[in-house]
Design a protein that fits this description.
The structure holds 2 protein chains of 2 kinds.
Chain A (H helix, E strand, L loop, with lengths): L2 H16 L1 H46 L2 E6 L6 E6 L2 H7 L7 H31 L9 H13 L2 H12 L4 H9 L12 H29 L3 H9 L4 H12 L1 H16 L3 H7 L4 E4 L2 E4 L4 H9 L7 H35 L1
Helix pairs in contact in A: 1-2, 2-14, 3-14, 4-8, 4-11, 5-8, 6-12, 8-12, 11-14, 13-14
Chain B lengths: L1 H15 L2 H26 L4 H5 L10 H10 L1 H4 L3 H32 L5 H11 L8 H10 L7 H4 L6 H14 L2 H9 L4 H12 L1 H17 L2 H6 L9 H10 L6 H34 L3
Helix pairs in contact in B: 2-16, 4-16, 6-10, 6-13, 6-15, 10-13, 11-12, 13-16, 15-16
Classes of the chains: A mainly alpha, B mainly alpha.
Chain lengths: 347, 293
């Protein structure tokens, strides 16, 4: 029993005996840092306390409650509500027929809305960032362009959605202009067409975000060492070659960051589709009536809002699916890019 | 030498190409695209509803005051007052911004200045939770609000801002680059307490980062619709500005276009003015946000 303690103290003593000075200073130094290090913990208390109560517990509770299914037996006043523990919410609403496939439908719609805005957004932002950093063709007023192109991003999304809704109403200014010019037919109604609504929402997102992405990419390009471009110029590389062979490869981490944050943000899309057309219009896809612009967060909210549809467990199960999809997407991007990196270094 | 001559000739060529005019054309076109919807919004807020229905108008008229009076008169139909909703937004946004940047700075300071066991783990953790969107745990968040009797209270929207990992991240980036720990040690020798050192020495020194993050925290809170519309759903008196916009749109009795545009215009006026005043700092802040290692 006493053996380990004895051997430990013996070892310790032997160290002190061999290097007496080192031992003493080490002990003193350690004491000093520990003394102040305490404050590190103290200063972290507010953040972690609030995080635990308002973010961590909610996440755990959401996971937990997703396994409790609300089952109503009977109708009207004689109805009995039971809470049943198990995979009921997932089996019935997520993968089963009771949910009508609304989870995956709305996720597909959300991803489609995101892709429709992200692809043109990243292409235009890259092009503009290339132009603004092109040393051969310096454009005047870069600052003013940035300020104006970024502006829609800062304006309340709710207001912008309603603004575009009024523009595209049957009697709205854009609709009447397009009819007047003759681009669209007289009987065209944008807000009752599923595709038109999708494209308009994607356009609003694109219009709000390309300025932001452009500024981020410009900052990224400015961070690339000028000596690389100088060397390329000496070798006779054209600006186009420089863009494809220097700028784009070195911009990869920032492009990846933009992609992941945009994808995660895009999956949580709510304000614009909600206020633009309340997730509508309802269109027939095959033999199914589908909300053409209802995103997954909008679906989750319908089961949180007070009313006959309210179902905490169902909303939680949908949230868990959204969480998993969000996590999966960031993982896919993470591993896809790190794999490419190792390949590049191998070459 | 040969390559140098080559460079000069390409440069010479660029001068006479249509490349630059084309780029100006696209850039100016995009600026018009960015501003045009707001221009139409402002013009339409000065027109009568009947005029707006006839098509696109580019010249303002003198109906703004009538529209405004009509909008205020219909407050009961909308359910929320325009100015009250702005005040409500401010009552949430200001404390949210202050708490968010102050506690983010405190947290970043703790991780940057102090050496304690588990420091790297704490930092890795803050970095990891940055990507978790609040929407996924909203069911649990409402549960917590019910348990703590914060449901329907503005505090439910304000207190959670004390734990904003993204803000902490940017504060730490800034502190690592331009805050020297020696100052803290000097303050200690002068007998300052740790908390005093943070408040009186560190906070003023990292003010540029605090100001930038404050702008973004303010804008995010001011524009937020999702959480307030859930937490304050039963409290019409506390409705925020985005909730007002929602009510303005969903109210069927209120289909006077002139009045709707007037309401929308007033709803974005404060943030638009603030943007053009602070645009320089905002654009610089956006650029900073993207350059991550």
């Amino acid at each position: 029993m006493n053996m380990p303690v004895h051997s430990l103290s013996y070892k310790k003593r032997s160290v002190y005996q061999t290097y007496p000075d080192w031992g003493v200073t080490k002990v003193q130094k350690k004491r000093k840092t520990v003394e102040y290090g305490k404050y590190g913990y103290v200063f972290l208390v507010p953040f972690f306390l609030v995080f635990l109560v308002f973010q961590f517990y909610p996440l755990l509770y959401t996971f937990y409650i997703s396994f409790i299914q609300k089952q109503v037996k009977g109708h009207g006043r004689t109805a009995v509500v039971n809470a049943v523990f198990g995979f009921g919410n997932y089996a019935d609403y997520v993968f089963g027929d009771k949910g009508g496939g609304e989870v995956f439908q709305s996720i597909i719609i959300t991803v489609a809305l995101w892709l429709l805005n992200f692809v043109p957004q990243i292409l235009l932002s890259l092009l503009l960032a290339g132009w603004f950093t092109d040393a051969f063709n310096k454009l005047r007023g870069e600052g003013a362009y940035k300020v104006i192109m970024y502006m829609p991003n800062i304006i309340t999304a709710a207001t912008i959605a309603v603004l575009f809704y009024t523009f595209f109403e049957t009697q709205g200014p854009v609709t009447s202009l397009l009819k007047h010019i003759g681009i669209v037919k007289e009987e065209t109604s944008f807000l009752t067409s599923g595709y038109a609504s999708m494209f308009i929402i994607a356009f609003i997102q694109f219009w709000m975000w390309y300025g932001n992405t452009m500024i981020v990419l410009i900052a990224g390009i400015m961070g690339i060492s000028p000596s690389l471009y100088e060397a390329a110029m000496v070798d006779g590389a054209t600006p186009t070659q420089q863009f494809w062979l220097i700028t784009l490869p070195l911009l990869k981490p920032i492009l990846q960051f933009t992609l992941v944050t945009s994808a995660i943000g895009g999956l949580q899309m709510y304000d614009i589709p909600q206020l633009f057309n309340q997730g509508g219009p309802i269109v027939m896809w095959g033999d199914k009536a589908v909300y053409s612009t209802k995103t997954i967060v909008m679906v989750i909210k319908t089961y949180i809002d007070a009313g006959p549809a309210q179902d905490e467990g169902r909303a939680a199960a949908y949230s868990v699916i959204l969480f998993i999809v969000t996590l999966a997407i960031s993982m896919i991007f993470y591993f896809a890019t790190s794999e490419k990196k190792s390949k590049a270094s191998g070459m | 030498m040969a390559s140098k001559i080559h460079v000069n000739t390409t440069q010479e060529k660029e001068k006479f190409s249509l490349r630059k005019p084309f780029r100006y054309f696209i850039c100016i076109g995009l600026c018009v695209l960015a501003l045009f919807p707001f221009y139409i919004l402002i013009v339409n807020s000065t027109l009568t509803s009947d005029t707006i229905k006839t098509g696109l108008h580019l010249i303002p008229s003198g109906n703004f005051v009538t529209n405004y009076k009509g909008l205020i008169a219909k407050t009961d139909a909308v359910g929320i007052s325009l100015w009250k909703s702005m005040l409500n937004s401010l009552l949430i946004t200001v404390p949210t911004t202050v708490l968010q940047v102050y506690f983010a700075a405190l947290t970043a300071y703790a991780v940057t200045v102090y050496r304690f066991r588990g420091r790297n783990l704490v930092w890795a953790f803050i970095y990891a939770i940055m990507m978790i969107p609040t929407q996924v745990s909203i069911v649990g968040f409402i549960k917590v609000c019910n348990l703590t009797h914060l449901y329907g209270s503005r505090l439910a929207l304000i207190i959670p801002a004390m734990a904003a990992p993204t803000t902490v991240y940017f504060m730490k980036q800034y502190m690592e680059a331009s805050f020297s720990v020696e100052i803290v040690e000097a303050a200690r020798i002068d007998g300052a307490s740790e908390f005093y050192t943070f408040n009186r020495i560190a906070v003023p020194l990292i003010m540029p980062a605090i100001a930038t993050q404050a702008i973004f925290a303010f804008v995010a809170s001011w524009n937020n619709l999702f959480t307030p519309s859930l937490i304050l759903a039963t409290e019409r008196e506390k409705a925020t500005m985005p909730m007002y916009v929602q009510a303005l749109q969903s109210n069927d009795k209120q289909r006077d276009f002139g009045q709707i545009y007037t309401g929308l215009f007033i709803s974005i006026l404060p943030i638009m003015v603030a943007y053009f005043v602070l645009s320089k700092y905002i654009v610089a802040g956006v650029a900073l946000g993207g350059v991550k290692e």
